[in-house]
Request: fold
Amino acid sequence: MATTATIPVVRSAAPQNFTPPLAAAQPVAQLTSVIRRYKATTALDGLSLALRPGEVVALLGPNGAGKSTAVRLMLGLTSPTSGQARIFGADPRDPATRTRVGAMLQVARIPETLKVREHIDLFRSYYPHPLPYAEIVKIAQLQGIEDRLFGQLSGGQKQRVLFALALCGDPDLIFLDEPTVGLDIEARRGLWAQIRSLAARGKTVLLTTHYLEEADALAHRIVVINKGRIVSEGTPSEIKSSTTGRKIRCHTTLTADYLRTLPTVTAVEASGEHITVTATHAENVVRAMLTADPNLSSLEITSPALEDAFLELTSI
Amino acid sequence: MSTTAIPYPTQRANTAIIYLKEIKYEFLKLLRTRSFSLSVIGFPVMFYSIFGLANRHAESGNVHFAKYLLGGYACFGLVGAALFGIGVGLAMERASGWLEVKQASPMPPLAYLLAKCTTAIAFGLIIVSILTALGIAFGGVHLTALEFAKMLGMTIVGSTCFASMGLLLALVVPANAAPGIVNLIYLPMSFASGLWIPIEFLPKFLQRLAPIFPTYHLAQLMESIFGYQNATPLSSHWIGLAGFTALMLGSAWLLFNRAQQNA
Reply:
C-alpha cells in the first residue's frame, strides 16, 4: 500500500488543544433563532449558531437534518422565515460580504467543457484580492490536471476543483457542504489534509458532514443537528463521550456521588426530582441501583437518539 | 487572524474584467459542447442546403427563393442558438446547483445573464454568416454589403428577443425535459412562421395563426431587408417582437422572484 503511505494521516493535536484566539470577538457568522419552512416541512426550527474567528466547526447530522439549509442561509442563497443570519455583522447577500466568503456546495454537475485553469481564472476575477493562481493550484493539489476539461476528471479531482473555487477569493470564512461525500477513503483523507491547512491559515471554516469520524478529525467544535434543531454541541471528545452508553432516568434517593462509583457510569445528571445516569452497561447499573434503593421509581432506559443516528451515520 | 476584526476595505473587483471573462468562458463552454454547437449550426446549414440551395433557380415574381429562404433559415438558426443555449443551458445549470455556486460568489448576476445573451448573439452571427456564405457561393444569392450588415443587425435584435424566451423557459421547464420541450416549441413555431418554407405556401389557417408567433414577426423583419415582406406594416412586427420580449422578461422576472422567495 505504497500509495496510502504518502497521505498525511495527521491526527493533529491542534483541534483538541484549540482555544479560540478571539473568543470574545464578534462572531464571524451568526444564525439567531432561525426558522426556515418550506411549505409543509420545517428545515430549521429555531437554530442558533455562532462561528468565532479561526474556528473549524462541523455541523453534523443525518440527511435532511437541515445542514445544507443552514449553509444556504449563511450564504444568502435563501432567507429565514423568521430569525436572522449575519455574516461579519452584515447581510450575507451583500456583495461586499460575499467577497470575504468562499463556498463549496453540493453540485451535481459543473460546466464540463471548461478547463480547470479556466474555472479558476473566472472565479478569481470575481474577487478584489484573489489568492495567486499558483497558490490555489498548490493548496488544492491540482498540479498536472490544470489543462484538463472538468468533465475528464475523477470524482476526487472534481471535488478538489470545487474546493479550489471556494479558495479563489482568499476568503476569511469558508463553507464546505459535505465536502467528501462520495469520495473513497484515500481521496477523503487527502481533502481532510487540505481542510486542515485552511485552519492553519487562520480561516474560519464551517463544514457539514454526516460522518462523526470526519467531524472528529477536522473540527474544534461539533454541532449535532437533527430535524432543524441542535441536539448536542461540544468538542469532539465531549460529543463522542456523550454518544456512548444509554441513559437511565429514574426517581431515586441514591446520591449522584454514589452513582458515579458504579461500574461503566460515564455521567450523572440531576434535574429536579429525577436523576439521569449514562452508562455503557445499563443492565448492570440498573440491577445495582434497584438493589441499593428498593423504592426506586419511574424508571426509564433510553438509547440516546444521537447514538442511533451515529451508529447509522458513522458506518462508512 | 486579525483581518477578521479589522474593517475590511469594501473594494470591488474590476467589473469590466468579470464581464469579459464571463462572456469568454460562456462562449468557449458552448463551443466545446459539441451536442450544442454542432446541432445549432448544423441543422440550419443542412436545412438551408436541402431546401434553399436546391431552389437556386426558383423565382416567383421578384422573389428569389434561395434569398428568401436565407432570411428564413437565418431566423431559424439564431432562434435555435438562443433557445438551446439559454433555455437548456440555464435550466441545467440551475438544476445541477452550479447556479447557486455562482450566486454564492460575488459575481454580479447581470454578468451571468449578459454572458448568456452575448453568447447567443455570437452564435447567431456565426450561423447567419455561414448561411449567407453558402447562399452566395452555391445558391446564386446576390446580397449587397448593406443588406448583409442589416441582417447582422437584425440577428443581434432577434437573438436578444429570443434570449428572453430562453430565460423564461429555463425557469419553467425541468432540466431533464428541457431539450425535448424546447424542440416541441421551437420546431412547430418555426414551421408555422414560414422559416422553413415561405409562409404563402402554408395552409390558410396557419397563415392566419402566424401573427401570434414571435418568429413570424422576426422573419418578416428579416425578409423586409430584401423587400420580401408581406403586406402587413413593418411597425406591427416591431411592436409584436417588442411586446413578446417584454412579456418574456416580465414573466421571467416574476417567476425568478417567486422562486427566490421559496428557495
Remarks:
- Chain A touches chain B through 49 residues (CB under 8 Å).
